[in-house]
Amino acid sequence: MPILYLDPGSTSFVVQAIAATALGCLFFFKNMWLRVKTFFGPKQKKEDDNNPTST
Amino acid sequence: MQAISSSYKDPNGFVFLQDGIYYRSVHSLYKPQYMQLMQSGLYEKLIQKKLLIPHEEVEHIPLEQDQFVILKPVQLPLISYAYEWSFSMLQDAAICTLQCALEAISFGMILKDANTFNIQFLAGKPVLIDTLSFDIYNPKESWIAYRQFCEHFVAPLLLMKYNHTSLNKLLIAYPNGIPLSICASMLPMKARLNIHAYLHIFLQQKISTKGAKTNHQQAAFSQQKLLHLLHGLISFIQKLKAPNAQTTWDNYYAETILSKDYLARKKEIVSTYLQNIPFDTLLDVGANDGEFSLLYQNTNKTIIAMDEDRNCIEHLYQFCKKNNVTNIHPLIVELTAPSPSLGWHVNERPAIFSRIHADVTLALALIHHLAIANNLPLEKIISFFLTLSEYLIIEFVDKQDPKVQELLQHREDIFPNYTREDFENILRKNYEIIQQNSVGETLRTIYLLKRK
After folding, report:
1. B415 in any annotated domain
2. DSSP β-ladder status, B67-73 and B21-27
3. Are the beta carbons of A16 and B146 separated by less than 8 Å?
4. 3-class DSSP state for residue B286?
5. B233 shares its domain with B290
6. ipTM above 0.85, yes or no
7. How confident is the model over B333-377, as pLDDT tens digits?
């Protein structure tokens, strides 16, 4: 059962901290993978840059 | 000035209606945030990217005590709610919300509200209509609207994707957002394998059920973390695809046994009728994929195209988006179960038909579904149309028509009064019949009517 009267901010803070870290790692590895692919792959065209952390 | 029924939550301002125009009053409390929004360049950026409703400051209404300024936003031709949207409409609304949040951060502000009611469609695109949703950003704090965003957008989108595309209707039962526990209990096992669904729904639900044992001094949030969160949400939502389930009315006009001549003739009749009457807003009920609504695409008319078939409305929205059609508003509405009034005192969110003010209603190839498939007496159908608009263009489909015969195939014919004579008698009591035409060789007749 959900705990009533619990400050929603404190649980949301924890979830966001975990989610942000997990997503940060995901972007990091995605980025690495893209670099590896660009390094070894054919160089005819630039990889579509979908990496959201690059903004 | 009296705040409208839905505008009571925010102490920083309220919306009121005066002489038929909606204004937004800004409280003195909100002055620092409002000045930051307007002077930092955030407002211009959001307007340039078509993410926020434009407004002008007005001076002709005297300010009351504690009022800082009164805004006149661009007036919306229609207010619609998330439970009337197709999958892509909700998806685009979610992305608009996240982009507003991202832009705000670059200008030292944060989006403090993330609910579906704050997003409306203007010229075919979702925009944020609550100008007072921005607060001063403190980089040490997490996103205050995160949970609300998950309950209003992520939960219904995931339920639509994994369970059924009609499940945004759950927002009628839960107008303040679908509780994460309900969403988690409904989603299938495979949804847990999606890292985003796991983080934003299952994990969040789990942590909020157990309760977090943290103190805020333990670790501060950071702007980098917030950017990861928002970018992560955007890329996840952009990639979501609704399952492509075939529905009854998919490709109705493309595959129907009714010939192309029938369609061409019908279009000709309807166009001629519409040329002869004055109107600004047309309501197309049972619009299918908008075949007739599209006759008026990109004109100065407002066209509201509603159908209960969500695939048809999805196709119409996609078509309008792709072709930059700005004046057509596709909506999923079931005539036998239209969206009701909701919320506090049952008038916070008005029912669908009290939000629509049309001059003419188009009801083509619809009456037999209401009368035969839903047992609605003709009198009731006509008295409903009478409430919608001054003019009505309606098609009567005779009982001998193959489509009506199909409907009657597996049921007893308990409709002795479903005849053209009865129909016309009822019409004459309420409407003046301006014109009527039979459609080619079929047993169908179209009427142009004016309310008496």
Report:
1. yes
2. antiparallel
3. yes
4. coil
5. no
6. no
7. 999 999 999 999 999 999 999 999 999 999 999 999 999 999 999
